[in-house]
Prior knowledge:
By secondary structure, this protein is an all-alpha fold. It is 80% helix and 0% strand. It has helices at residues 8-40, 44-72, 74-91, 98-126, 132-160, 163-185, 198-207, 209-221, 227-239, 246-266, 272-295, 302-333, 340-347, 350-369, 371-397. Helix 1 packs antiparallel against helix 6, helix 2 (44-72) runs antiparallel to helix 3 (74-91) and helix 2 packs antiparallel against helix 13 (340-347). The chain starts with 7 loop residues before the first helix and ends in a 14-residue tail after the last helix.
Amino acid sequence: MSADTVPARIASTLARTHLVNSIGDGAFYVTFALYFTHVVGLSATRFGLGMSLAWTAGLVAGMPLGHLADRIGPRRAAIALAAGTAVAVAMLPAAHSFPAFLVVICAYGVCQSGLIAARQALLTRLVEPAERTRVRARLQSRINGGLALGSVVGAVALALDTREAYLAVLALDAVAFGVAAFLLSRLPAGPAPAPAPEAERALTVLRDRPYAVLTLLNAVMLLYMPLLSLVLPLWIVAATAAPAWMAAAVLALNTVSVLLFQVRVARRVIDVPSAARTVRTAGLVMLAACAVFAGTAGTASPWLACAALVTAALLQVLAEMLQAAGSWELSFGLAPAGRHGLYQGMYNSGIPLARILGPAALTGLILGYGAAGWLVLGALIAAAAVATVPVARWAARHRPGSPAIPVAPVA
């Protein structure tokens, strides 16, 4: 069975939803910081603090909102949270002070974190277990395509550099989430699993120690998230002979690679054991990427520095695709039936955590310690990836509230 066996209307609607979302997000991410610092007048420190608090709010809200998705159904929750995100973005132009910005951006962070959990839970309702990771990979390719298109829109707004251009981008993102909410409403709710007792359903994930450890290991691996957008541009300018535009080239290479190859990479992941092995491979490839990035500091030739950066970027995006595919399967395959929203809320808490801790941690580590910092980062991610194998085996043996799943060798 292939991903093509997923009903065409469901697959098409899911793809359009993620594409529309990501076009708005791509434009939003490119322009958001400059709008609030250059147009509204927030200091960079206050803007950064507001974003950290927003993702902290999202981190705290992820599990409760995932639990809500299990109770009311993930489709209803996803529609409400997409609409809530649209409203939050639409209110951003009215946030002319730091307190107003803080309120609105925290609402945005909460809705975004909950929406991730709800959409993942909806995917488990609509797609057979054997197809979930491959379908999720197809959606990820759409996300990257949308981000690329959106970033072009954002680049136009940056070139115009007017208040009206920035407001148009915010309006585009708000409309995109509104359209996504409508598209989600076109999906079926999916078969509802037998409900667990309320107390058990709410507390299971907190008692599931191996799943909690997997969540922590996944969060460590997600530290790469601010690497290309924040750390690498600073590294290229400060420590290498490569031209500054290589930062944009590396980001474009990453986006196109995921768009073209994520589905192919995900084909190797068919169950929990293969997912754990794939995550382990991802960590070792990321260690190699960090070692090559570290070596770019000692290259005097701009051409050699560019070649090394491209090599490192290719290794990094391969690790990213492997980690994503393995991580999706682990999060799906080790969550009990009927509690996917709650479990996805916990597992995906690594995303806001990486957004909170990643920028400060990585800039301090890599820009502060240079090549040694790169190697420490690579070793940390590799250690988390290698540890995923025994922890996944442990989690498969202790999967709560569901029939045992096969525990094939993962060594």
